[in-house]
Q: What sequence folds into this?
């Protein structure tokens, strides 16, 4: 599947496939032509993906073939045991979590979960968690703390679910509580934006010692579409809104609102998922090593200090 | 009948220009339409003597109602917004700020007062909805964070009066992180064993509700206040149905277990100070 701005790549790749097929059928030697076309495609890709607009990044972050939380878990962990439920109301399928081992280390891995096919999308509520999801996440974090296991959260949500029951069960309270509690977790906490990082729904599991964004993701206070509808009173200004919000990984790093960026394969994580899983695995091990240098007290103090210093004001 | 014709459709007063409490001699309750002298309305703590409708008021009025002899020291009063993203929609963000400052006489959407309430030291941060919808950007987050720091320094209770549409879009990622910042400071207040009362007023929604407003040791609200995460319009669009009567009101939240109690503004000072005095005995 090609996104609108990827069409030129799609055209060339179709041409390449045709050329190969013709060669096979007619036994004509086209090795040279194939090579030259492949080089051309690579050039085009490099050109397109190194000049992405902010809106195009948003599109990539939502690419239907992009790996989701459970794909990462499967791709990275030798063993994973999923744990369910918030012990109060239900098991929120839009938020998953459990213990997983990567090499010799057991992590608590928690993340938003989107679905791929129509039915699964509904079951996963499009990655929009209810309060039960945030409470489940917190329960699992406390469990990790009890057994002294580091926590990894994978963020990929278009927002916390704005439904009637979500309000009845205290969506705001659930998110707020997570923010406060996550600051005091004694174990290392690493948060990775793997797709969409929309507002409070993302932040609700994104308070960590390390907050990283994959290269083609976005993280902001509102989605470009909703921002467009509120500030421009129309859904048509999403490109402008994306530019104004400065929501890419580069923007967020430049403003000191995240700790780093993790690169993706050319064209996005879905172009080479196993490369992506290996990269994230290596990054996690590196970050954990660094965080283990500090005591729990030091980590908590640094975590608080980092977020407390965010914001730009002027003493008038 | 052309003299009868409206030249522009709909209500044309911009939200910022709407006066919540008119300065005239008379005040008409928007709920029951009862007309009372403005002075009498103020003496009733800006509530309607007929139907008890709580008019929307700002930090000036709340500080007058809560601090002894209306005396307090304002903290960080000159802290103002910057424009870290050079944000522009229909107009540049700095223009909006300047316009809001001119209209309201305020610097931003929150003010901090330190003073005595029934003889007890308290820090009160109070939001002003009149300033860009009470939206939370860096200034709001920073002033609340410093307010909490001040309470910790003085070892006194912290009171937050929320009235906000949520995070301020024009500071995007920075606004989002104010939710984290204020929550971090409240975690430190917890560690120090100091009380935090969160008073939610009409309206309290979005990122403000999903951070400091819901984190009180005591979550209380004024009667009839709209309190929620998503705004009613968004919820309605999501579920595709009309919302039940009373949805997202203070009474609804009390029923669902998210408030400790609802407080009438006329009794607010007494209820708050009774509660805080109990904790110090």
A:
């Amino acid at each position: 599947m090609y996104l609108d701005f990827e069409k030129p790549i799609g055209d060339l790749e179709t041409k390449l496939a045709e050329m190969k097929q013709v060669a096979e059928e007619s036994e004509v030697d086209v090795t040279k032509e194939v090579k030259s076309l492949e080089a051309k495609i690579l050039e085009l890709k490099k050109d397109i993906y190194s000049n992405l607009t902010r809106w195009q990044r948003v599109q990539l972050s939502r690419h239907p073939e992009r790996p989701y939380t459970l794909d990462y878990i499967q791709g990275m962990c030798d063993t994973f045991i999923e744990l369910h439920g918030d012990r109060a109301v239900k098991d929120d399928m839009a938020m998953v979590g459990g213990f997983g081992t990567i090499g010799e280390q057991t992590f608590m891995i928690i993340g938003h979960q989107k679905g791929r096919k129509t039915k699964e999308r509904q079951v996963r509520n499009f990655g929009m968690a209810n309060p039960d999801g945030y409470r489940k996440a917190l329960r699992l974090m406390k469990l990790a703390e009890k057994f002294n296991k580091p926590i990894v959260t994978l963020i990929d949500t278009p927002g916390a679910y704005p439904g009637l029951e979500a309000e009845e069960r205290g969506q705001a309270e659930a998110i707020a509580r997570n923010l406060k509690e996550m600051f005091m977790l004694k174990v290392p906490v690493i948060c990775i934006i793997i797709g969409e990082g929309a507002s409070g729904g993302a932040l609700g599991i994104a308070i960590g010692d390390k907050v990283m964004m994959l290269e083609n993701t976005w993280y902001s206070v509102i989605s470009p579409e909703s921002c467009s509808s509120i500030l421009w009173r129309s859904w048509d200004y999403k490109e402008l809104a994306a530019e104004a919000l400065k929501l890419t990984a580069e923007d967020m790093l430049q403003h000191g609102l995240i700790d780093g960026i993790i690169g993706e394969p050319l064209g996005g994580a879905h172009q080479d998922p196993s490369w992506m899983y290996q990269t994230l695995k290596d990054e996690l091990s590196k970050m954990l090593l660094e965080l283990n240098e500090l005591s729990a007290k030091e980590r908590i103090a640094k975590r608080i200090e980092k977020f407390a210093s965010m914001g730009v004001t002027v003493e008038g | 009948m052309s003299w009868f014709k409206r030249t522009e459709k709909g209500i044309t007063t911009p939200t910022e220009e709407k006066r919540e409490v008119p300065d005239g001699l008379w005040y008409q309750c928007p709920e029951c339409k009862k007309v009372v002298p403005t002075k009498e309305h103020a003496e009733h703590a800006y509530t309607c003597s007929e139907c008890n409708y709580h008019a929307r008021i700002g930090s000036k009025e709340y500080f007058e109602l809560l601090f002894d002899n209306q005396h307090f020291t304002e903290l960080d009063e000159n802290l103002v917004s910057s424009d870290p993203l050079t944000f522009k929609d229909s107009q540049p963000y700095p223009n909006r700020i300047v316009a809001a400052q001119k209209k309201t006489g305020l610097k931003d959407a929150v003010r901090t007062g330190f003073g005595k309430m029934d003889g007890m030291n308290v820090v009160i941060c109070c939001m002003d909805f009149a300033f860009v919808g009470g939206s939370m950007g860096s200034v709001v987050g920073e002033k609340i964070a410093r307010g909490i720091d001040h309470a910790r320094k003085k070892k006194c209770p912290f009171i937050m009066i929320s009235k906000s549409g949520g995070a301020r879009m024009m500071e995007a990622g920075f606004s989002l992180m104010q939710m984290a910042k204020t929550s971090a400071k409240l975690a430190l207040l917890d560690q120090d064993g100091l009380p935090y009362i969160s008073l939610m007023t009409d309206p309290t929604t979005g990122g403000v509700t999903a951070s400091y407003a819901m984190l009180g040791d005591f979550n209380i609200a004024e009667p009839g206040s709209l309190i929620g995460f998503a705004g009613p319009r968004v919820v309605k669009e999501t579920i595709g149905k009309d919302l039940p009567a009373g949805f997202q009101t203070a009474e609804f939240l009390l029923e669902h277990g998210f408030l400790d109690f609802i407080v009438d503004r006329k009794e607010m000072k007494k209820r708050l100070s009774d509660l805080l005095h109990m904790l110090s005995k």
